[in-house]
Design goal:
Blueprint (H helix, E strand, L loop, with lengths): L11 H14 L7 H12 L6 E5 L2 H12 L10 E5 L5 H8 L3 E5 L9 H5 L6 E7 L18 E4 L7 E2 L2 E2 L6 E5 L12 E5 L2 H10 L8 H6 L19 H11 L2 H26 L1 E3 L15 E5 L5 H10 L4 E3 L17 H9 E4 L7 H18 L1
Parallel strand pairs: 2-3, 2-4, 4-5, 5-8
Antiparallel strand pairs: 1-9, 6-7, 8-9, 10-11, 11-13, 12-13
Length: 381
């Protein structure tokens, strides 16, 4: 039995019809899908006050969010941005890419930054804080309310989860999403920025489209040659119509997907808890009480220190079981090689892995994964 690491939940017929609609339009009628996609996500989040700006990917979303809080200007080396090291490199690279200096913080048992550690890293140079709502688990946002420092929530994996009854993304902070291929809601590639600030939204919409002062649709409808269209020098960061159409189609079945993921996640939990003590395992998907809905982005397992995690991953893959090492610590990458004490980050970095997990995984497949895992761990004892 061959079981992949993940698989997007896409209703093929619905998706193909949405894409066909774009192709049939030849991009000359009906207006861009990007506007519709933004409105659909806003509607899903029940967010009447947010401004939703779709961009080409989640990394760009973080970078533009950092520029937006700095009034469109690049950061300097003296501008420090606190960011968790336990995240995909985009969270830290985005800071460097716009000129700032990342200051690494640790995560708690839930895998997200926490107020005690973040506060200890604030200095007079702190320009912003990036809170990563990792693997669908939100940070305890209320704890960060009174810091008087701009906060960006990197919610790349958070779409569909909730913090105290509100969707991740529907908060007073700037939020960013990723719709990359492995995310619960995927468009193949894409991202989004959410802000409450209308001036920031106006700047972001301009900057994602070469710095234009009017929308491409307005420009195309004009009956005369418009001059002085570009107020900023920028590039093309817009999300394409076909990815947007795919996102709109998938959104129709998104709640169904989260329900299936929840069933699969709870089944893994119940079965793995039965063997956790015997095999020295720890379930990584710990969900705090304030997370009132969890999207089950990945299934996260922590091995005991007696195991070589990379060896376990390799042996499972040789048995046709999709898995991968856990999120790796950014500060240890050769691009940085920083020395900083982050004990929980190092634990996940060295001992964590992801098991095969997706909405349509069957109990038979999950049982097979667990059997193969046990055999590999027995082999390594």
């Amino acid at each position: 039995m061959k079981i992949p690491l993940g698989k997007p939940y896409i209703k093929t017929e619905v998706a193909l019809e949405a894409i066909k609609e774009v192709l049939d339009s030849r991009w000359i009628s009906g207006g861009p899908k990007i506007n519709e996609f933004e409105e659909k996500i806003k509607e899903y989040n029940n967010d009447s006050e947010g401004h939703y700006i779709a961009v080409s990917n989640g990394t760009v979303a973080i970078e533009l969010a950092l520029l937006a809080i700095n009034k469109g200007k690049r950061l300097t080396e003296n501008d420090e941005v606190i960011v968790p090291s336990w995240s995909w490199v985009a969270s830290g690279f985005a800071v460097s890419n716009v000129g700032g200096t990342p200051i690494w913080c640790d995560v708690n048992e839930y895998g997200v930054p926490y107020i005690g550690d973040v506060k200890s890293r604030i200095t007079s140079n702190t320009k912003a804080i990036i809170l990563v709502n990792q693997m669908g688990v939100p940070c305890d946002l209320d704890a960060f309310e009174n810091l008087n420092i701009p906060i960006i929530e990197d919610s790349a994996c958070g779409f569909g989860s909730e913090y105290k009854g509100k969707k991740i993304g529907n908060s007073k902070n700037i939020n960013t999403y990723s719709f990359q291929a492995r995310k619960c809601l995927t468009t193949g590639e894409g991202g989004m920025i959410i802000t409450r600030n209308s001036s920031q939204a106006e700047w972001l919409r301009s900057y994602r489209a070469f710095g234009t002062s009017i929308s491409p649709l307005e420009r195309d409808k004009a009956q005369f040659l418009l001059k002085e269209q570009f107020e900023n020098i920028s590039s093309n960061y817009k999300m394409g119509d076909i990815p947007c159409a795919l996102g709109i189609a998938q959104l129709k079945s998104f709640d169904e997907e989260v329900k299936l993921r929840s069933i699969a996640g709870e089944y893994y939990n119940s079965k793995l808890n039965e063997i956790a003590k015997e095999y020295d395992l720890e379930i990584g998907n710990k969900i705090p009480d304030y997370c009132t809905r969890y999207n089950w982005q990945n299934f996260h397992l922590i091995l005991g220190e007696k195991y070589n995690r990379d060896q376990v991953v390799d042996l499972l893959r040789k048995r046709n079981i999709g898995c991968k090492w856990d999120i790796q610590a950014i500060h240890l990458e050769p691009a940085y090689s920083h020395s900083v004490d982050l004990p929980q980050t190092i634990k996940f970095h060295n001992q964590g892995l992801w098991l095969a997990f997706y909405a349509e995984i069957t109990k038979e497949e999950q049982d097979h994964v667990i059997i193969q895992l046990k055999e590999v761990l027995d082999e390594l004892k």
